[in-house]
């Protein structure tokens, strides 16, 4: 990573095991690990979540560092996926902000890019616990007749 290349904090469909992780991140990251965005809430959306800054909650996700030489392409791909056209652009679905996230393994505050809901986004209900993965059914759970 060169100076100015921030890691990314992902919390929804870009997390490991989710469809956009496989499609956009596989082979483009050098490191990934659990992290939390404090002072934010996670809201359901139309098939993807929205992080909304403010409050006392937190958002569960992963911090990832781009592989050598992959940063520019990864930044462009994520901006496109998140419908980010530039700071405060009226067509943005998400705004890309530099935020400090807490790396779970050591509690360190790490500056990272985080895509948060833009003004035109319409967040749905808050997801308790701030974890997008908690809202899907548990696989291989025992079934009751």
Task: Summarize the structure in words.
This protein is mainly β and 145 residues long. It has a single domain, classed as Hypothetical upf0131 protein ytfp, CATH 3.10.490. The chain has two helices and five strands. It has helices at residues 19-25, 71-81; strands at 8-10, 29-43, 50-66, 94-103, 109-117. A five-stranded mixed β-barrel has the order 1-3-2-4-5. The model is unreliable at 138-145 (pLDDT under 50). Residues 133-145 have a biased composition (Basic and acidic residues). This is Gamma-glutamylcyclotransferase family protein. Residues 126-145 are annotated as: Disordered. It comes from Streptomyces tamarix.
In short:
It comes from Streptomyces tamarix. This is Gamma-glutamylcyclotransferase family protein. By secondary structure, the protein is mainly beta.
